[in-house]
Amino acid sequence: MEVRVQKIRKEFGRFPALDDVSLDIRSGELIALLGPSGSGKTTLLRLVAGLESPTGGMIFFGDEDASKKSVQERNIGFVFQHYALFRHMTVLDNVAFGLKVRPANRRPPAAEIRRRALDLLDLVQLSGLEKRYPAQLSGGQRQRVALARAMAVEPNVLLLDEPFGALDAQVRKELRRWLREIHDRTGHTTIFVTHDQEEALELADRVVVMSNGAIEQVGTPDEIYDYPVSPFVYGFIGQSNCLKVTLSSGEIWFEDRPIGLRAAHEPDGSATLYFRPHDIELIDGCGGCLAGLVTGSRRVAGTRHLELDLGRGHPSVEIELPPERATAADHTRIAFRPTKWKLFRKEEKQQQAPQEVETRARELARTGT
Ligand SMILES: Nc1ncnc2c1ncn2[C@@H]1O[C@H](COP(=O)(O)OP(=O)(O)OP(=O)(O)O)[C@@H](O)[C@H]1O
Ligand SMILES: [Mg+2]
């Protein structure tokens, strides 16, 4: 089922937890809501479910105004952030619960309920464990029961609020892959909340990046990673560097020299240059480029990360090189130029990216100003 969120506002007291949020979710899509703690992810999910009502705006399921539908009528499958199964019920009864409590006219016969619950346990690879109680399962198995339970009602929309949050990294990774497979097989429209960017980028058809009760960007994982639209998204997704630069006649200058990057249509003035550590090229005998002294070096899997000091008052910059290219000795001078980058002007900036705050703090600690 298609879900359209239109200009939603939600206030708790006078605090706006969501402000003017609009989002179109296509039928069968797997959408990840990604954002820092308190950005409004759970609130948005609860509004779609009908567990909260909006202060303003509308939510449509297909062409129907969902506000006219009760939680039951919306037919949602929900896995909560801190999910608890019914401890006194077996795995099978947990999965069958949503069907058993339906009003008599919509309730399938008992044998059909049992068959469906067993099929779902097969789907989540828990066949044979139907007589166990939740306490006799591992964390990952419990989350899979929770998912089977949410899917049992054949939901119009499946809402998952950090379903794997409490599990260790390895189990999370397995469940993540497995959730994608199940989604592809069942085709439920699914909204998945996480604050783990890797999880969102790996799993989702589209990612919704949220911050402070608003949507910063919606896009495919590639779009979000390769073309962040704001300093916040640049700072929040993946690693990035930011440097204060100036523009003069379409050229980008760092301190007193041009660095060989052009931004032809940008007006003169100050700006911030963003680039990712791996989007750089090394330059021999730098005429117009960036340069810094190596202050740290670490090997991370297949690449070497170098920390560079670009001079007093500037945040250190991290670049990533193939290990064989890296001259890693401290105080070696490295000249480089970003190959892929983006400029943000002050007036575009709605808020400070966390990384900039951190950078500023480091700057203050270093210069004492
Ligand atoms: N029932 C409530 N009463 C008052 N404030 C609330 C209520 N629920 C949420 N909030 C506030 O709304 C904001 C958004 O909360 P929400 O739970 O949606 O964040 P979240 O993105 O899910 O965060 P997390 O990643 O920590 O789960 C927070 O500042 C929170 O304190
Ligand atoms: Mg939450």
Automatic annotation (TrEMBL):
GO molecular function, one term: ATP binding
Boundaries of every ABC transporter domain copy: 3-237
Keywords recorded for this protein, A-Z: ATP-binding, Cell membrane, Membrane, Nucleotide-binding, Sulfate transport, Translocase, Transport
SUPFAM superfamilies to which the protein is assigned, alphabetical: MOP-like, P-loop containing nucleoside triphosphate hydrolases
Region (Disordered): 346-369
InterPro entries cross-referenced by the UniProt entry: AAA+_ATPase, ABC_SmlMolc_Importer, ABC_transporter-like_ATP-bd, ABC_transporter-like_CS, Mo/tungstate-bd_C_term_dom, P-loop_NTPase, Sulph_transpt1, TOBE-like
Keyword set includes Manganese: no
Biased composition annotated in UniProt, kind: Basic and acidic residues: 357-369
Superkingdom: Bacteria
PANTHER family: SPERMIDINE/PUTRESCINE IMPORT ATP-BINDING PROTEIN POTA, SPERMIDINE_PUTRESCINE IMPORT ATP-BINDING PROTEIN POTA
Homology family: Belongs to the ABC transporter superfamily.
Protein name (record): Sulfate/molybdate ABC transporter ATP-binding protein
Species whose genome carries this gene: Sinorhizobium garamanticum
